[in-house]
Amino acid sequence: MNRHRDRRRRHAPATTAYPRSPSSLPGDVDPAALFGAALPAQARRKLDQLSRQVEERLALVLVGEIDDPHVSSLTLLGVEPEPGSGNLVVVLALPAGAGGGEAQLVMRRLDALRPYLRAEIAGAIHRKRTPNLVFRLVPAPLGRDRDEEVER
Questions:
Q1: What is the β-pairing status of strands 132-138 and 87-93?
Q2: Cα–Cα distance between 16 and 38 in angstroms, integer?
Q3: pLDDT tens digits for range 24-75
Q4: Which of 92, 53, 39, 44 is nearest to 70 (CA)?
């Protein structure tokens, strides 16, 4: 008498088979191989929630708690989960007129601040593990200036 059955055997194994039509996919290309399997709705919702929480905390820290003028002049554009890993990509905009030398300086300073920022995030979120931060700098958006946003 087996009281403890393996319940995993009751369900059919998950498959990544996609319906294929000759006109939509050239050759023998599997979308799951290119893009990975789609996340379930709950997992996607949790990643979005984590990204919003991290974005809110980083916005407060970058504006009010860091005394470095190069870092505090950055504009936080968003936080996105990196596919297939525990990293979050923090997208920051350089101030208008910043050159390549300034971008390198800012990246070095962000790398030095990474442990502090992760500690701030750990205090703000309720997760077992704090995600790693990957910084991506982009030029300032055209037509939008930080001073114009404050005046509105």
A1: parallel
A2: 9
A3: 545 566 666 666 667 778 888 888 889 999 999 999 998 888 888 888 888 9
A4: 92
- pTM for this entry: 0.66
Residue 128 DSSP code: S
Q: How would you classify residue 126: left for phi > 0, otherwise alpha for psi between -120 and 50, otherwise beta?
A: beta
Q: Residue 128 above 50 pLDDT?
A: yes
Length of the chain: 152
Burial class (CB in 10 A: 0-12, 13-18, 19+), 18: exposed
Q: Which of 131, 57, 128 is nearest to 88 (CA)?
A: 131
Q: Please give the structure tokens belonging to residue 87.
A: 């990293």
> What residue type is assigned to position 125 of the chain?
I
CA distance 131 to 140: 26
pLDDT surpasses 70 at 20 = no
Q: How many helices (H) and strands (E) does the chain have?
A: 5, 3
List all residues 6 or more positions away from 66 whose beta carbon is below 8 Å from its beta carbon. Answer: 72, 113
Least Cα distance to 55 among 75, 78, 71, 74 occurs for 78
CB 58 within 8 A of CB 121: yes
